[in-house]
Amino acid sequence: MKGWDIGITLAPHFLVLLLALPFIGSLLSVLLLNTASTVLPSRLASLVAFGCLLIAVLAYPQVTDGNVLRYNLDWIPQLGLNFSLRLDGFAWMFCVLITGIGFLVTVYARYYMSEDDPVPRFFSFFLAFMGAMLGIVLSGNVILLSIFWELTSISSFLLISYWNNSAAARDGARMALTITGIGGFCLLIGLLLIGNIVGSYDLDKILASGDLIRGHSLYLPALVFILLGTLTKSAQFPFHFWLPNAMAAPTPVSAYLHSATMVKAGVFLLARLSPALSGTYEWFFILGAAGIITLLIGAFFAIFQQDLKGLLAYSTISHLGLITTLLSLGSPLATVAAIFHMLNHATFKASLFMAAGIIDHETGTRDMRRLSGLFRYMPYTATLAMVASAAMAGVPLLNGFLSKEMFFAEAIETHADSVLDIALPYVATLAGAFSVAYSLRFIHTVFFGPSPTNLPKDTPHEPPRWMRFPIELLVVICLVVGIAPAFSVGPFLHTAVVSVLGTQTPEYSLAIWHGFNLPLIMSLIALVGGAALYFVLRHYLATCEDGPPLIRRLRGQRIFERILVEVSWRWARMAEQRLGTRNLQPQLRWVVVTGFLAGLLPLWLSGFEPRTFVFSGVDKVFAGIWLVGICLALGTAFLAKYHRLAALVMLGGIGLIVCITFVWLSAPDLAITQLLVEIVTTVLILLGLRWLPKRTEKMDESVTFRARFRRFRDLLIAIICGVGMTFIAYAVMTMPVPDAIATYFLENAYTEGGGRNVVNVILVDFRGFDTLGEITVLGIVALTVFALLRRFRPAPDTMVMPEQQRIQNRFDEERPERNAGDTVREYLLVPSVIMQWMFPVIITFAVYIFMRGHDLPGGGFSAGLTLSIAFLLQYLAGGTRWAEDRIRILPLWWMGFGLLIATLTGIGAWFLGYPFLTSHSQYLTLPLIGKVPAATALLFDLGVFLLVVGSTVLILVALAHQSIRINRIRTVEADKPKES
Amino acid sequence: MEIILSIAIGVMTSCGVWLILRPRTYQVIIGLSLLSYAVNLFIFGVGGVKTNVPPILSGNGADGVLADPVPQALVLTAIVIGFATTALFLVVLLASRGLTGTDHVDGRGDKR
Known about the structure:
The structure holds two protein chains of two kinds. Chain A is an all-alpha fold. Chain A contains 37 helices and four strands. In chain A, helix 15 runs antiparallel to helix 19 and helix 25 packs antiparallel against helix 26. The longest helix of chain A is centred in the last third of the chain and has 44 residues, at 936-979. The longest helix of chain B has 32 residues, at 69-100. Chain B has a single domain, classed as Helix Hairpins, CATH 1.10.287. In chain B, 67% of the residues are buried. Chain B starts with a helix and ends in a 12-residue tail after the last helix. Chains A and B meet through helix 24, helix 25, helix 26, helix 27 and helix 28 of A and helix 1, helix 2 and helix 3 of B.
């Protein structure tokens, strides 16, 4: 139809619109999730599908005669990955199928879905699937194609499992996803291999380099992987078994997935890539074998199904086998037949699925043993279904006949001399006979015979007018194409064929009558033979069990599940039992050993020679300090089990020595921070000690040999690690320091950052983003601690009052002039008064540290810690209750404001046109105080300060509060017996 | 100086590793603290060991050799984050002790 010029030329952007519309519609459906209406979402979906159909139809003039409509957007051009869309005749045909049948299915689904179903969710998934499918046919880049391929797997999973309270739906969906997902992964590998061979992922380039690909040594692996992808998707043997199980989906889904879309994606890609891959013996053999077996067993199994949808499912498998067989032949005429049959199968199978859905809807069952004589209740639907079945059986004057004739004609031809080729005509005729038998069975059982008895729903009747409309339209198409092919589908088919075959497009005739030739004889044999077969089998079929005889028990599904259980459950369990452990010690041991080896290996490979230690020039005082430090470290390691408090004190001692080291080695900022953190950590662990079990006083004498061995091994690991660290640390420290970024920071700290304390400038300015991340982590940890402690229940043995407190209380009780708790209050009276008085002093000190931070040691971190110590001292001096009666600290607010200020300071730079966290600095002159640095970094540092205060106080107070909570729990539990 | 620092780092690593491989939660938390001292000192030492040259500018730019400020900035945040992780671990330890009634790292009794 070259004269079809409507005067509209679509810009390539419409391709994007065509692809984007379903996804937009899918998102819009999500917004409708709360509506009770079933009409609105279906209207939306119909509208979207129709809009897409319209765009596709309007684009037709631009794809005729092998023209291609292209749209390209660079995505990651460095990887050859572009968002390129291309619409040629073949893709156009599929676009019309996807959107057209999609539109009809949405119209149908509006009546099929019940009020109780979450309808918006259905249409959301449906449109997403439609978009993904359009993506496959429109992709001009094979990686993009593979992405959409995966999207169809995922969205079909969601569609099949739509009724997710049914186990069959869940299992079917999972199986479909597993099979097609693995297939999709194989496809990706295959496409990557192809891209590697061709040097481009662009579909046009790949299609143009067929000879290069076929001649390459990687051709076979690439082919096998791609075929794995397509055969799984198109449910070809031996992966066919997922399709019948996917029948647990709502019927509109089956009608869509198994006629025009999902399963067609496989054969679509085969046809699409056939110019690049086909024509070799491997192609013929793998594809031919899969196709012929599928064609035959699909048709054979279909005869013996008792479920209407099961019959249609196996018939779908068989017809896809037919298409695959045709594509395997590699001859141009066979490709024409394959494309034609994709079209025809989509029309009659979609209408048959919808008819099956209506029957199910009206009678409440799909079991053919219970259905019968429905013709008198729904003559209209019955007639439509009969015509569609006849098309499926390949009866003349219907579209199925034409492509089947073409298939028979191709089957007779010799393509590659082999067993497959010789067997093909006989297999084709046999499969034809089978398909006549199951089509006849479908019609005869359901619509003829006596009236049905005992149906779940009484008196079935015709469905609503518009529920039938999609079937009517499709059946009319079947008829029109079947009677006048050249005038109806001819030009469109030609457009599609030309875009696939190009200059190889053969001469073919779409006439119904080609004379009395061999294909016609084969058709006749199939028709007569099929009818006879059904006649012979009909009594058996009326009562038999579901599934083909003899091999009924041999189910792909069972085998698949057995394998799944074996691999994902037994093997995984075995591996976990053999290799895994839930104990922390072995895990840590592996971490340490692996870490050590990971450090050792590169050193060993690069020929690391440990330096000889030079002891000269060692400062004796420094050496002495660290001698103490080493003793403390050893003491800590020894006493951590037997005397926790002593270990903690020693740990604090080491902290102080580290702090002195920082002072000694020109790191005043570190020294300040270390000192403050040391105080806070010690208090923290002291608070925690209260909740640990009583300490182990004595050394355990009775150790077993195994325990001894474990200790020895751990000691060895520890010593090796320590020695290794010594060598590496010494080597690193004596190495000349390379001129890295340090010089840059030193030179630019003042001019760029406006501060003289380079460490602080790095923290709040140069690496401000890192610091923002770090304070966020700090905040998160504090909140986690807080949250964990809210539900904290101590062990029963720590619930009792500590011994010390009991002694103190007894002392108070024994003396009449004293009240309980006096001793605690008087404890360290003088220091606690001093601590209370120090409160304003420390706050002033914190402010001082904060303000000088940009130029001298100090800054937000240390000021924050200082202020939190000020609060901490008040708790220590007066006790929790006393402190909280007087000061109200809201640590969460401090944290929130801190993070907010830090982030806002960063965002502020945006408004001035700079990147996030760009700082500005200048000096302000304040009365009395004089010149004060006022960089925006100071504001950021304020955020750090507030957050550090908030987090530290939150952690400590939350832990301190446990003692009070415990009193409350104790009182509550003491009161309980009284009440009961 | 370097030799002392290296040995100190080595000893603290040894003690830390020994402690984190022990079965008591308290030993592990103390071991982690020791390890973090060692690691902090190590990172700090990467910038070279210099005395009396803190990275604080007297004029407007770098005059003379100053200590490397980058490892110092790294270690400074590491110290604060170290406090946070100690706190987190302590609370997890207490919660585990409350739930399981034992202070064994696996929440179960000792194996012999």
